[in-house]
Specification:
The complex is a heterodimer of chains A (493) and B (376).
Chain A lengths: L2 H10 L5 H67 L2 H4 L8 H48 L3 E6 L4 E4 L1 H5 L1 H4 L13 H15 L4 E7 L10 E11 L2 E11 L1 H37 L7 H32 L7 E4 H19 L2 E6 L4 E4 L1 H18 L5 E8 L5 E8 L9 H4 L9 H5 L6 H11 L4 E6 L3 E9 L2 H9 L1
Parallel strand pairs in A: 7-9
Antiparallel strand pairs in A: 1-2, 1-5, 3-4, 4-5, 6-8, 9-10, 10-12, 11-12
Helix pairs in contact in A: 8-9, 9-14, 10-11, 11-14
Chain B lengths: L1 E8 L2 E2 L13 E6 L1 H4 L2 H10 L4 E6 L3 E3 L2 E3 L3 E7 L4 E8 L6 H11 L5 E8 L6 H11 L5 E6 L11 E3 L7 E8 L2 E8 L3 E13 L2 E5 L2 E2 H9 L15 E4 L6 E4 L1 E5 L4 E4 L8 E6 L2 H16 L6 E7 H7 L3 H12 L4 E7 L1 E5 L7 E4 L3 E8 L2
Parallel strand pairs in B: 3-4, 9-10, 22-23
Antiparallel strand pairs in B: 1-2, 1-7, 3-7, 4-11, 5-6, 5-23, 8-12, 9-12, 10-24, 13-26, 14-15, 14-21, 15-16, 15-20, 17-18, 17-21, 19-20, 22-26, 24-25
Helix pairs in contact in B: 3-4, 6-8
Classes of the chains: A alpha+beta (493), B alpha+beta (376).
């Protein structure tokens, strides 16, 4: 029986006899069980609370320790962040490990990560672009390396930094690798050419085309190159120079041989042709007896053909000299109306005889800077062609005007002749070209006239053009520079 | 509606308190100790009292008849509805995993027209109480309420029985549908308090818990029980588990059903998902009785019912011990003197989580009350 109940029974039921106690026994046992049960429950509850308390204490210690570690970690992160964050942020850190502070830190780090990701993405893009660029550069390098022409790169002082494979096969060029281009042993004209190019580079020009010829030596022949030079500038300053060259030594030699041949052949032809013409003239004069009509006709033909041949030889020689740059040119100041009227006088009679009107319309009457002889030859050639290709009853007009930029005078010869088909324009100024038509067969001409005019005009610094309508007429125009005094006069005016 | 009651005690049946209307009884509820209720003779006797009507029986951890709580008896209550009616079905399961599908099947057999409420009784050891509630809910319309209990076996946790129209058997699930003009209310309340350090369920499977905070759960119980550890699993009822599932605020109580020494695990009456937060709970006499009062208040709702079915948890009986009748008396004081009361101490209660909710689930350590009134 429960000890408490025993005491209570002793205290309060001491008077009961055994029988009465016996009757109460089940009840007392029930009460004893209840007391025991209650005590056990209390004991269990006490035990539970003690164990629970201890666990709570341990948990708190663990949490405290974790909190300290977390606090330390946050401080460490804050210190790291201070390295990266702007001062405005680091100065405002409260170091109180509050939720707000941690949220700010988290946002800052998130923003940093976003920025970092953007940077990485940009780097990847740039890397891809660079890789693409490298591929293009490789393609370009391959093309340059394998080009047939010689490709030479120089720095802005003309020191050679690269020569492609073709270039390295040329013994002269190959020796320039790592050296200055100006060390090439050039003929005087080419040395002057190089000096001129350098001067013009300093003046800001970027592209040039010229020929260079080296001097021959004991071990090496002379080479001639056709050179194209391009300057690459950054912020206006020359950075490096690209040269593309072609060995034209053989072509030059062939051209020289051709010129020599033409010159020799022409001279050799001229002498006998002059003799033929002379003898025909003597026969025509009747020094060796009067000729009958038939004889006169035949001798006349011999004479005309000789004249034509002599003109052809003369034209070929002139053209050859022009090609070689050997035809002399003397620029002077001339009054354009005077120049033109001199030529008109020569043609008036023949035009009248044919029934073709010849007139002059001179809008510009000032001075020009030309070679007088060449100018006369051009006008003569154009008036002669117009005369040949204009039917009786037609009209030929020679006119002058100033160009829009007021730097040149334009001289035009307009006829009402047979005209020229448009598809023939490209061939007009080439040697031995004549537009094939019915009338053309009846006129004479060497076919060199317009080619010579073109060379003469360009040598004087001008250009020649044509406009034409088939069966309606043609206009040949060429420009010559206005005399500089005229220009200076305009500038100072 | 008429209610008549009898009791089988010390080998004899008592007369019912009112004249038994033997014919026309709608449903008979018989709650008794395992040894009594599993007897064919007892069933035959009950059937002789009530030749018609559904006879539903369940083994208990204690029988309630009016305000009396007894052991080793049979509490018998017969309900006679004037116009309301019932349907009932039962089916046994072979393993706990079949609980959900079988519950769905038999609940699905109930006609849904005019269905007001479903009472469910089941085996208390093999059936998974959580799956039982889920399976029934799956097929019933939302407006139909569900209450019930899981059969008990005193504090032995060895074999539980329930039966429909035959001798009670093990592994059984029974559903009874109540139809017609019936007013059915319910209330459920515990009165246990969580205490101590919250722990995380780090390893569990269904209703078997292996570890809390990576420590074997059985060792935790033995530490708290001390000398009483030798009485496991019964002594484990003193410390039910309060669980909060991840992502939810709802707290559920889980009663220990059995232990596995080799695995260090404990089987509970309902699921305890991994990741849940778990705390041990302790009881207080007054709070348990107050809890029963609260359950009664929730069920009462202003009118005195004809019949009140009380299903209370075995854990409460273990704590309250001889004072157990105080909680039943508390219920009676709320319900009114005219109400007929019966019920049993179970291994788990089925009831809505909140009094106004239709969403039922398994509870433990509660007093769950269902009142039935026929509205004429």
């Amino acid at each position: 029986m429960n000890s408490l109940l025993v005491r209570q029974v002793k205290k309060y039921l001491a008077d009961l006899d055994d029988v009465q106690k016996g009757k109460l026994q089940p009840f007392l046992e029930s009460i004893s069980n209840s007391y025991d049960g209650y005590e056990n429950d209390q004991h269990l509850m006490q035990r539970s609370l003690e164990i629970s308390s201890d666990e709570m204490f341990q948990k708190n210690k663990t949490l405290e320790s974790q909190a300290n570690i977390t606090k330390g970690a946050i401080e460490a992160i804050m210190n790291s962040v201070a390295e990266l964050a702007p001062e405005t942020y680091t100065q405002s850190i409260k170091h109180d490990n509050s939720i707000e502070e941690i949220a700010r830190l988290s946002k800052f780090l998130n923003d940093l990560i976003v920025e970092h990701k953007k940077s990485v993405l940009e780097m990847v893009r740039q890397k891809f672009k660079t890789e693409q660029l490298m591929v293009e550069i490789e393609k370009f390098k391959l093309a340059v390396d394998n080009a047939v022409d010689f490709i030479v790169f120089c720095d802005n002082a003309f020191n050679v930094t690269y020569i492609n494979q073709s270039g390295m096969t040329n013994p002269i060029l190959a020796r320039t690798m790592g050296r200055n281009i100006q060390e090439l042993d050039l003929v005087d004209e080419s040395s002057r050419e190089v000096a001129e190019v350098i001067r013009r580079i300093q003046d800001g020009e970027d592209t040039f085309s010229y020929e260079l010829t080296t001097k021959p030596s004991d071990t090496m022949p002379s080479f001639t190159y056709q050179v194209g030079t391009t300057i690459i500038r950054v912020d206006g300053r020359a950075q490096f120079i690209i040269n593309i060259a072609r060995d034209i030594t053989k072509e030059k030699a062939l051209e020289h041989q051709k010129d020599e041949f033409v010159s020799v052949a022409s001279h050799e032809l001229r002498t006998p042709m002059t003799a033929i013409r002379g003898f025909a003239g003597v026969l025509m004069n009747g020094r060796f007896g009067e000729l009958n009509e038939k004889q006169k006709e035949l001798v006349g033909k011999i004479n005309r053909n000789a004249v034509t041949l002599i003109e052809l030889v003369g034209d070929m020689l002139d053209l050859n000299k022009l090609s070689a740059g050997k035809l002399s040119i003397t620029i002077g100041d001339f009054d354009i109306p005077t120049l033109i009227s001199n030529e008109l006088d020569k043609f008036q009679a023949m035009y009248e005889e044919k029934g073709v009107k010849l007139q002059a319309v001179l809008q510009y009457k000032g001075h020009v800077a030309v070679d007088e002889v060449h100018f006369a030859r051009i006008v003569t050639n154009l008036l002669s062609n117009a005369f040949k290709f204009t039917e009786p009853g037609g009209m030929v007009t020679i006119s002058t005007e100033i160009t829009q930029d007021e730097q040149y005078a334009r001289v035009s010869v307009t006829d009402t002749g047979i005209g020229i088909p448009h598809n023939a324009f490209s061939q007009l100024f080439k040697k031995f070209s004549q537009v094939d038509n019915v009338l053309q067969r009846q006129v004479s001409g060497t076919g060199l006239g317009l080619a010579i005019c073109k060379d003469l005009v360009e040598n004087m610094g001008g250009a020649i053009t044509v406009q034409s309508e088939y069966r309606r007429g043609s206009t040949f125009s060429f420009t010559v520079p206005i005399h500089t005094i005229e220009k200076q006069g305009e500038e100072t005016a | 509606m008429n209610v008549s009651q009898r009791q089988f005690k010390n080998g004899l049946w008592s007369d019912s308190a009112v004249s038994a209307q033997q014919d026309g009884v709608t449903v008979v509820l018989g709650f008794g100790s395992r040894d009594n209720i599993s007897q064919q003779d007892r069933f035959d006797e009950i059937r002789s009292f009530y030749p018609s009507g559904f006879i539903v029986t369940a083994s208990t951890a204690g029988e309630i008849l009016d305000t009396h709580v007894d052991d080793d008896t049979i509490s018998l209550t017969a309900l006679h509805f004037d116009q309301a009616y019932c349907e009932a079905y039962s089916q046994t399961i072979q393993s706990p995993e079949e609980t959900y599908s079988v519950a769905k099947d038999i609940a699905g057999k109930l006609s849904q027209q005019e269905l007001k409420h479903v009472l469910v009784f089941s085996d208390g050891l093999v059936v998974n109480g959580s799956d039982l509630a889920k399976g029934i809910l799956e097929v019933l319309p939302e407006k139909v309420t569900v209450t019930g209990g899981m059969a008990g076996d005193s504090d032995r946790f060895e074999q539980t029985y329930c039966g429909l129209n035959e001798k009670a058997v093990q592994n059984n699930i029974i559903v009874i549908g109540l139809y017609g003009q019936l007013e059915v209310t319910h209330g459920s309340f515990g009165g246990w308090d969580p205490f101590g350090v919250p722990r995380v369920v780090t390893r569990s499977k269904g209703n078997i818990v292996y570890e809390l905070d990576h420590e074997p759960i059985l060792e935790l119980y033995k530490k708290y029980l001390g000398e009483l550890a030798v009485q496991l699993p019964a002594s484990g009822l003193l410390f039910p588990l309060n669980i909060t599932q991840p992502g939810s605020d709802t707290q559920l109580v889980r009663t220990l059903l059995s232990i596995n020494e080799s695995e260090g695990s404990i089987v509970y009456a309902g699921d305890v998902p991994e990741g849940s937060t778990a705390q041990l709970m302790k009881a207080n006499f007054n709070r348990l009785v107050e809890g029963a009062e609260k359950a009664a208040e929730n069920a009462h709702q202003g009118i005195s019912p004809d019949f009140a079915l009380l299903i209370s948890c075995v854990g409460r009986k273990l704590v309250l011990k001889e004072r157990i009748e105080e909680e039943v008396e508390a219920v009676k004081s709320i319900m009114g003197e005219t109400v007929h009361m019966a019920g049993f101490y179970s291994y788990g209660e089925i009831a809505p989580a909140r009094s106004q909710s239709q969403f039922c689930e398994l509870h433990n350590q509660t007093m769950t009350i269902t009142t039935i009134t026929e509205v004429v």
